[in-house]
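Protein modeling request. Please complete all fields; requests missing the sequence field cannot be processed.
Requester role: graduate student
Desired output: 3D structure, token encoding
Chains: 1
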Amino acid sequence: MPTHHIEAKEGDFAKVVLMPGDPKRARWIAETFLKEPRLVNAVRGALAYTGKTPGGFPVSVMASGMGMPSIGIYSHELYESYGVEAIIRIGTMGTYQENIGLRDIVFAEGASTDSNFLGELHLGGTYSATADFALLLKAVKAAVDLKLPYHVGNVLSSDVFYDLDPENWKKWQRLGIAGVEMEAYALYANAALMKKRALAICTVTDSFVGGGSLSIEDRQSGVKDMVRVALLTADLFTATCRK
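Delivered output (243 residues):
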């Protein structure tokens, strides 16, 4: 059942989909971590693969592109047209807090935003977008089992990468926001609207507090840990669903 943006056939996607932003990263994940990966989508370069996790469970990985409009389109079509039950975003972020270090993993319990993503609903208020609690619990367990440093908190999903006000991030810092990325809010909103599950897992690659930034080599290493957590989370979720 191809959509406007995905050429995959019915049954090509697993119930759980990991979503990095970068198509090349999606391919790298599939080729590095998955057993028997097969390409199921290449429309617009949004590469998608389906295979099995190291634990033997079916899983898919698909690029979301950058920003909320992009992940909003792909998550909607995966949920609605392909029967996907859970999407786990795996991306990078910049931290606003001193206690969160480079390479640490952040689980987005909630997502604040400066976007008008839900403007068409005319809510008359502000919607608080949150992760699926069952997925979040499984992700925390995965990080503990793998002995990796992690944090759970609220992130900012921003429409702006180059902010004209270089001090604007401090307003969010005061509210305890863990850091900034660009996709989680839209993913969580779509999951809520469609009665599905979603979680955003991010590797910290930059710090607004200390001004540090990971090298290309360290970014790759840090992403590996995040992918391991996401795959184990997918295993735990799929195993629970089969019981």
